[in-house]
Amino acid sequence: MLKQNMSICVSSLKKSYGNKKVLSQVNFSVPGKTVYALLGSNGAGKTTTIRILTGQIKADGGEVLIEGHDVLKSPEKVREVISLTGQFSAVDDALTGKENLVIMGRLRHLAEPEKRALELLNYFELSGAANQAVSTYSGGMKRKLDIAMSLVGNPKLIFLDEPTTGLDPQSRHSMWELIRELKRSGVTIFLTTQYLEEAEQLADIIAILDRGEIIAEGTAEELKAYLLDGAVKFIFEDAESLENAKQILKHYKTASVSEEHQLTVYTDGKADTLALIFHGLYENQVKIREFSQLAPDLEDVFLTMISEREGKFNEK
Ligand SMILES: Nc1ncnc2c1ncn2[C@@H]1O[C@H](COP(=O)(O)OP(=O)(O)OP(=O)(O)O)[C@@H](O)[C@H]1O
């Protein structure tokens, strides 16, 4: 896709805090009107990325274009087209929901801040609580108001930093519905999350950030294809068969559960490979009780990628 169709273009982004390298060489692009999820564990560098993309901090190197504007050269243009909702809400608890929105509308120089506040309260089904102090709102209502605040200026691109962290399952599901609805309204959404399920539920494209690098990017289906459909789970008759199988299949990536005489073998999914595996086991008279082909889930992909990298780091 052409650069001009991209809502976000990031190239060669680097950032360190003192001696600590947080982002080493980050590249990605986000097409307009899509949901892009940056997935990573605690401390992977997600918030740092968002803070650079929104112009709150400067990178040590690299380029960031937001809706075609360079974040360093035209920060005011960038601020006009984006909104940011943080892990910690910017809402003032002592004021009512409506007052918060009206103040934000004035800050954004809207002609009719009150009208926009009422529209948003209605959209987020908060009209009933419009004149109550935010301190009386539930966590889910506060999060909704926080997102409403970020929509006051009709942004093209919304940044959501861990939008459901700390929410109960019910509020999390309503937040997901809200994010889907925002997408349907035509905005681009960049979100960070620690939850695989959240990325899978919401994102058109998922990028996995680990130790300051994007180690994989694609649709949930593409990422799952990384493990291919070639994972086969065997359950053997006894411990001896399991040990024999491990020896025979030592050149494959495997995972075993000894107590259950179980071995999962990761293959390239090709029929020839599967035939070789079965042939090897058969020739050595390994007693197979049952076997099944596994459909990988994203959790597998994430854990496999991270553990492969841990292996590499340990080898260094
Ligand atoms: N201002 C700072 N000074 C020094 N180190 C920092 C600073 N901000 C973040 N870090 C460190 O940089 C690393 C990445 O932090 P960041 O907040 O970007 O991660 P994250 O992926 O957003 O994690 P979380 O899910 O916990 O928010 C962490 O090890 C963190 O301790």
TrEMBL record:
Annotated GO CC locations: plasma membrane
UniProt GO molecular function: ATP binding; ATP hydrolysis activity
Transmembrane segments: none
Places the protein is found: Cell membrane
Gene Ontology terms describing biological process: daunorubicin transport; doxorubicin transport
Recorded topology in the membrane: Peripheral membrane protein
Domain of life where this protein originates: Bacteria
UniProt-listed SMART domains: AAA
Domain ABC transporter span(s) in chain numbering: 8-236
UniProt family annotation: Belongs to the ABC transporter superfamily. Drug exporter-1 (DrugE1) (TC 3.A.1.105) family.
NCBIfam families per UniProt: drrA
Protein name: ABC-2 type transport system ATP-binding protein
Lineage: Bacteria, Bacillati, Bacillota, Clostridia, Lachnospirales
